[in-house]
Amino acid sequence: MCGIVGYLGKNESKNILLDGLSELEYRGYDSAGIAVLQDKNFSIYKAVGKLQNLKDKTKDFTSEGFSVGIGHTRWATHGKPTELNAHPHLGENSYVVHNGIIENYQELKKELQDAGVAFLSQTDTEVIVHLFEHNLKTASSAFDAFEKTISTLEGAYATLLVTKGEEETIFFAKQGSPMILGTGKNGDKYFGSSDAPLIGFASEAIYLSDGDYGVVNNEGIKLYNDKKEKSLSFSKLSENRLSAQKDGFRFFMEKEIYEQSDVMSDTLMGRVQDEGINFDEIDPSLFEGINEIKLCACGTSYHSALTASYLFERYAKVRTSVEVASEFRYKEPLLLKDTLFIVISQSGETADTLETLKMAKKAGLKTLTICNVDNSSMVRLSNASILTRAGIEKGVASTKAFATQVAVLWMLSLYTAKLRNSISQEEITKQLHTLREIPKVLKVDDEQHERIKRLSKRYLHGHGFFFIGRDVFFPLALEGALKLKEISYLHAEGYPSGEMKHGPIALADPELFTIALMPTELLYEKTKSNVEELSARDSTICAISSKKFDKSDDDIFITPSDHYMLEFFEMMVALQILSLEISVRLGNDVDMPRNLAKSVTVE
Length: 603
Fold this sequence. Notes:
Rossmann fold; 16 helices; globular
């Protein structure tokens, strides 16, 4: 949640900060703000809502010559989305921006209030700037005060702080939330919650680790961890921003649905070979002594994990369990060392999932991360990682990240199956052929899109949706329901088809819309029977299948195929487009649905 940018240099700082925040607005858009320190004076601007409101407020502001600036786009955790709660937060002579949660802020706040400090906001972040200024009164330097401040904080944070006493300096710290430090021409320094704001400005970057903190100024960068100075390790940054543009599509989500065919080719490239699956990133020894696979994730990634659980048990014949990361952390789980612990995350920074990874590492388990972002916290922490290669995904409702996660996990199930000799080479060869077909079925047919667009007008009102499916189509039903909820704000639930008669069917009537996933290559007759039960109770049925279902009210036809996973991916596209078009008709902001943010870096 939330996005941070920072700049130190001689260029016009406002435009750099606002440009960076534009790249991070997917992380939060309840409010935004910037603070620029120049000639010993601060210029501070805040606005509630979308970033455009902040741009409007700052249209007459410019900076000339050397300045330091920090900016923030907020997804509210502590305190409502108001200007008072928006970052940057002010002390007497300092400003701070922060991403994460300070778990001990209430105790710190009380201590500071007892010492006479007045708080203006409801946020946990404000504690940082007041604590810094309180420490500054007795510290030997501003850096010592900052070091003492961050040593007192508990929880997750990425923070930037500027103060009048050090007007050519930015103090920074990272613990549990992402932070990148970049350098550009003329010694300019840049900060960002991801590398996207740095592209086009910085040429090299340091991906900060947990516990890193330090100071940047005209003289250079000082980086510390555990009070010991660290050497600087830079990585080269990409120079291409084209992938972050809409390319003529109405929404980033729509663009990303259409991109799935191309990015899937990247996901499969070099991995699907003649005799089996090859992952350069992992060593077969990772699976030695493994008798169970435990998959852990949140949200859409959890649905890809559920899908994978069917594939691992079906092909690799290995016991597989799936955990919701936010629950797993607190259930006192039994972690046995013959378990391979796999975490799945689009960003690699998802707080709950990251903490489960740390638990598994502490328990001595082998760990593997499935992720879209190299150098992310999960990738760096786990024993091994496999990148999904989905590219930048800016729509908050995930599409291509889910598709590539499922593909990687399907490939991993076959990789594991070959190691365990659990299926024949003939079957592996057949699966490899099917994998190569995925990019083709992910290509969006314009006529199909237009049919779904016309169909969507019938599904704007009612008292809810059931998405139903069997086997791997049950997690796909969950994902379809989640997509609709996220961007249309309509109530939707995903269910196993066979569970309808165990209670939910009581809701069936003409105003209940059933989206039925009916693959012909997997349990078609069983699913058909379940859908007929709903039809008999007058539920409105939209069937997604390659066959005509005689009791459906509407049909979305997919291409006939000889493998259920090809049906899975084509149905996935249909569900994404259906949710998109319903949301558009309802007049919603598809890319930035209310109350949500892209990268969930808090509990």
